[in-house]
Amino acid sequence: MGRTTALAASGLGWAALHKDRILAVACAHLLSSTHEDIACLTVPEHRREHLALARVTAPCTDIAARGHTASWSCSRDNRPGRLLAWTAGFRLEREYVHYVTGSPARHDHLTS
Predict the structure, then answer these.
(1) Considering just the CA atoms, what is the radius of gyration of the chain in Å?
(2) For residue 81, what are the CA distances in angstroms to 7, 34, 35, 72, 94?
(3) Are 77 and 108 in contact (CB under 8 A)?
(4) Are 40 and 25 in contact (CB under 8 A)?
(5) What is the pLDDT, as a whole number, of residue 106?
(6) Residue 110 predicted with pLDDT over 70
(7) Are 40 and 54 in contact (CB under 8 A)?
């Protein structure tokens, strides 16, 4: 089963399609006992067409029907993500700090 088929079968993903091509997809990517955090991606050439907004608002109804709360997380610096969340009806609860460890892997040092 391919990733797209598996996501569709899970009931946790919603896509905007045109001629069998995915233009935008939203999915619950972090699940807890009370919340489902939504992530969304739109192909670059179809941004600003409100596809992401449609994909983000659709799962909120399903998430609420499961008795969970839809949530949205993004960086303070992610202005498009913050605007999308606000437009979709999400409201800021708190800002967070993101910690990481180590240094990123360089592609020229990766081996097969």
Answers:
(1) 16
(2) 22, 22, 19, 9, 15
(3) no
(4) yes
(5) 64
(6) no
(7) no
